[in-house]
Specification:
462 residues; alpha+beta; SH3 type barrels; 5-stranded antiparallel sheet; two-stranded antiparallel sheet; extended
Length: 462
């Protein structure tokens, strides 16, 4: 499997596995019903956290005087909504993702053992455990088919692309736009020839416009919160002020370190609500990345993928000429198409099979009436002497060596006759005799040594 960058996936797993807090349904006097999380409350207002799109969460402040009622949702219902879509799909995940998902499903059973959704959660947990077992053994599921470890290595670019695209979609659905964009960066950088790249580009183009207003609102909220924080520090007791100031400094240092790490890795900064530096860095990056993605022509990439898949079918049907022509069109449209380049190499190898090693002697042909394993007699050489014409008996499993040539043979004919390789020493008569004698001497020595030890033992007892 390809080497996977860990930083994006650590962010994506957090986004995927974070269960939302208890959601409530707030009904306003206007009749509007808002399903949201009550993030903060004051005496007169409440701040609601709600999902405004597949990948973006936002906050909304409402006055308590405008609220008619609040319907509380049971905790297990809220928790189940966070895991109900966790199902095994057509493509396998990375081991770390399986671990995180299994921990989340197991936590649900621990926290809500009496929930009516427990049976469904357990079924999902069993399915993920079965998939993880195969992944741990080196297999990979791609488009519903399990690939062996060797085949997974051959298709590592396509597999890596699918895994990161799935992580990108999961992070976006969990409201982690930054995690989704960081997954896209890794996909594009390490698996840029994967078939999922056009879809990943389209998804990134959808995330960026929603991220901009959310970041702008976060900057406005950060300024308000910072003003409130300073007022709180000013009005704090003298003994509490140093700790409040130190806590803020630690939080800012942590955000600065995360920003520096993301910048060094070429990733998006974290969406830290308390860090003006992080939020402004995101806002600065959005138009640059938007302009870059808009310049990428996705249509030729999609056409190239279709052509490469058609060439794959033609190659399977052994129509090498048609597959070659189709692949030329595919590579011309998108040179980085990994399926196209891989098939091109396979077709080239099929057209040019490896040649036999020079000097290799083909096995002698046998007649239809010859017994299996019997050697074909070597033809007698013209002018050979009777002594030279006699061949030494050979083992039944080996063809008889060709008859020795007489002095009248040319040097060319001698050069073409293969020389019989020398036998190992232990297979010669002399070698066998030497081994037998050596073993006899060794046994005799052992016998004499045993008798001496026995005699000494007897003497000691007397």
């Amino acid at each position: 499997m390809p080497k996977i960058s860990r930083l994006p996936f650590s962010l994506l797993c957090l986004a995927l596995l974070t269960a939302s807090a208890s959601a409530d349904i707030i009904t306003l006097k206007t009749g509007e019903r808002i399903e949201a999380v009550i993030a903060r409350e004051t005496a007169t207002e409440m701040t609601l956290e709600l999902q405004i799109s597949a990948g973006i969460k936002d906050e909304r402040t409402v006055k308590k005087a405008d609220v008619v009622k609040i319907d509380r949702v049971a905790p297990d219902e809220t928790a189940y909504r966070a895991v109900m879509n966790l199902q095994t799909g057509k493509n396998s995940l990375l081991p770390a993702q399986y671990t995180g998902i299994l921990n989340t499903l197991n936590d649900f059973g621990t926290k809500f053992p009496e929930s009516t959704h427990l049976a469904d959660v357990k079924l999902a947990e069993t399915a993920f455990q079965a998939d993880k077992k195969r992944v741990d053994a080196g297999e990979v599921k791609l488009d519903g088919t399990w690939l062996s470890k060797a085949e997974a290595q051959r298709q590592r670019v396509q597999i890596g692309g699918v895994q990161y695209f799935n992580a990108m979609k999961n992070a976006n659905a969990a409201g982690d736009a930054i995690g989704a964009l960081n997954a896209f960066i890794t996909l594009e950088k390490n698996f840029g020839g994967a078939k999922v790249l056009p879809d990943a580009i389209e998804l990134a183009r959808q995330i960026l416009p929603a991220l901009k207003p959310a970041t702008e609102r976060a900057i406005e909220n950060q300024k308000i919160n910072e003003t409130e924080r300073l007022l709180g520090v000013k009005g704090a007791a003298p003994l509490d002020k140093p700790e409040l100031i130190a806590a803020n400094e630690r939080e800012q240092a942590k955000a600065d370190a995360a920003l520096a790490a993301a910048t060094a890795a070429g990733l998006w900064p974290p969406l830290a609500a308390t860090s003006e530096k992080c939020l402004k860095a995101i806002l600065t990056k959005i138009p640059t990345e938007t302009a870059r993605l808009e310049k990428i022509q996705v249509a030729p990439m999609r056409e190239s993928i279709q052509l490469a898949e058609r060439a794959q079918t033609e190659f399977a049907d052994k129509d090498l000429a048609a597959a070659t022509d189709t692949l030329k069109e595919a590579i011309k449209l998108w040179p980085a198409n990994e399926l196209g380049t891989r098939l091109t190499a396979q077709i080239t190898a099929a057209k040019n099979p490896p040649k036999p090693e020079p000097g290799a002697t083909p096995a002698p042909a046998t007649t239809g009436t010859a017994k299996a394993g019997a050697a074909t007699p070597a033809p007698k050489t013209a002018g050979a002497t009777p002594a030279a014409g006699k061949a030494a008996p050979a083992a039944a499993a080996k063809p008889a060596p060709p008859a020795a040539a007489s002095d009248t043979d040319t040097s060319e004919s001698k050069a073409t006759e293969p020389a019989e390789p020398p036998k190992p020493f232990f297979m010669t008569v002399g070698g066998a005799v030497a081994i037998v004698i050596g073993l006899a001497l060794l046994l005799a020595g052992v016998n004499i040594f045993s008798k001496i030890r026995q005699q000494r033992s007897n003497d000691a007892q007397e």
